[in-house]
Amino acid sequence: MNIRERGILAAAVLVLAVVAVALIVSGPAAGPVVSPPPSGMTAERILRVGTVGSISTLDPLYAVDPAERDAIALLFRGLTRLGPAGTIQPDLAKAWTISKDGRTWTFDLRDDVRWHDGQPVTADDVVFTIHSLQHPDYDGPYGNAFRGLTVERVSPTQVRFVLQEPLASFLTATTQPIVPAHLLAAIPVAERRATAFGLQPVGSGPFRLAALGDDEVLLERAGPPPGGAPASLPADPFATPAQPTPAAPQDGPQRPHLDALALELYPDRTSLADALQAGQVDLAGDLPLEPTKRIASQPGMREIDYPTSHLTAAVLNLRDSKSPFRDPAVRRALLQAIDREGLVAAASGGHGVIVDVPIAPSSPLYDASAPAPMTHDQAAAAKAFKDAGWKKVGDSWQASGDKEPLRIQVVTVEEATNPELYAAAERVVAAWKDLGIKATLKAYPPVEFVDGQLRSGEFDAAVVEMDLGLDPDLTALLDSSQAARGGSNLAGYQSAKMDGLLSAARTAIDPTVRKAKFKDLQAELLERLPFLSLYLEDRVELADDRLQGPTPRQVSSASDRFWDVLTWRLAETPDQ
Questions:
Q1: Does position 217 have pLDDT exceeding 80, yes or no?
Q2: What Rg do the C-alpha atoms of the chain give, in angstroms?
Q3: Phi-psi map region of 337: left, alpha, beta (phi>0 left; psi -120 to 50 alpha)
Q4: Counting runs of H as helices and runs of E as strands, what totals does the chain give?
Q5: Close Cβ partners of 153 (under 8 Å, ≥ 6 residues apart)
Q6: Residue 172 contacts by C-beta under 8 Å, 6 or more apart in sequence?
């Protein structure tokens, strides 16, 4: 399987993001019982972060619950990590090089990072992690990103990846958390899920596990490892790394300012909002709209808006050669008919960015010289229909050659599963009715929506949520090879020109060249509108004013908000 096919398989899951909301493992029945603070620490020195979910495993190769991913983001490190302004920065790796053909990526590792049990982090751990993900017995969700490539240990501090073809977005994959080979290599991959490591993890991140309960995960700042700081690694690349020098001073990566961080687990968004309102947590996000507005207005609270890669879009089925939606002018008119400002206000309380193309304005690859998103204009939309040869029959539009006015059934996920997406779908249907389209809305449970509607390709139009990822490789969403029923190109859009532009943007390694290729791709997306982008949502976090440091950047998952946790502080209060 080549890199392109891996990307298609991985991204096929992204367009089904609405399912994740319904399939999250249920949390505890009540809110957390607060654990006593670690020895020598007052409760006021612990940052309490509220999250919805529960903990089944803290093994980074298997964890899927948002609460689990939050903990893992603090316990483990990858070769790289997220940086400001959409960048990827070194973490376990201190530098990397890319071959001229874009296929070979060589990472030089820091020699001063330790696992929380004191053992050094080496290239062996990186190779072991990737081989685990590639193993035929691996049954977790993260294997696709590393299939079809080879990884080798060059020395204790150098590892090399060889891809089957150039892939500019590969660097984003290297944020994958690395696990310790010295603790796990002897365990068969098929048995990994059942090991104690899942609930007694040993990471290399800025925090270590202090206590794990049913409704709280208590993490404390990772201090000097047992035995002191690491000694220098040997010059012989195949020698066994030296043991730490007990008297050596603390060294290694920057440590967090926070003494400890407690993840407080709640069963649903409403109970989390209640806990924040009551002052039981210091930070919480993705709350229902009404409590978000109410709590944000309270003294001592502030709002932090993180732009996300989650796109709400209306997908028109283009597979039928006689579909009236195959005309880009018709698609443009349908988009122009939607009051997207009103839609964003209704669906997300105004926390979102209106876009015409599936590339985030916060992405370094976005062409800022492109026209501003089109404005709502029902009259212009009606004129576009008329110019395309449509006619009004009574108060409804009828396409040229059709015998009856157009009827559209819009499908989406049920309101109980994703109320924001359902509200957006309601606005789309209302807008099209106002234009003169006989539109109706039908909502489905998540599995039926995905398998019975999206995968089958039997729908007229669908309002969906897509996770575009932090590096916008749109191949899965738009490549012609995925246009058949069951493919990840939900609209069934096919274009040789688009395929070529997607390939050029995906494989261009040089940043300047890649930005130019994305500019060409963005222009074609704007011209053709293969699906109707509505808005990119923001993730709203509400924070106690004592918390200093969190800075917004684009995030894909909730755990990405910890990208700058090393800078977070709890302000001292007068009585501390």
A1: yes
A2: 25
A3: alpha
A4: 16, 21
A5: 123, 124, 126, 127, 159
A6: 88, 469, 470, 471
Could you tell me the pTM of the whole model?
A: 0.88
Under the banding of pLDDT at 50, 70 and 90, the label for residue 44 is low
Q: For strands 547-548 and 301-316, give the pairing.
A: unpaired
C-alpha 521/C-alpha 477 separation (Å) is 13
Residue written as tokens 């290599």? 185
Q: What percent of the chain has pLDDT over 90?
A: 83
244 phi, psi to nearest 5 deg: -65, 150
Q: Find out whether 503 and 521 touch, Cβ atoms under 8 Å.
A: no
H or E stretch at 9 = helix 3-12
DSSP designation for 454: I
Average pLDDT over all residues of the chain: 88
The single residue listed with the structure tokens 């982008």 is 533
Q: Which amino acid, 256? A: P
Inter-residue contact 504 to 524 (CB < 8 Å): no
Query: Can you list the pairs that 124-127 forms with residues at least 24 positions away whose Cβ atoms lie under 8 Å?
Result: 124/153, 124/156, 124/181, 125/178, 125/179, 125/180, 125/181, 125/182, 126/79, 126/92, 126/151, 126/153, 126/159, 126/178, 127/151, 127/152, 127/153, 127/159, 127/181
Tokens 């992204």 locate to 14
Token pair recorded at residue 373: 């998103």
In terms of Cα–Cα distance, which of 3, 171, 173, 2 is closest to 511? 171
- The fraction of the chain above a pLDDT of 70, given in percent, is 87
Burial of 486 (0-12, 13-18, 19+ CB in 10 A): exposed
Number of Cβ within 10 Å of residue 370's Cβ equals 16
Q: Is the pLDDT of residue 6 over 60?
A: no
528: tokens are 């053709």
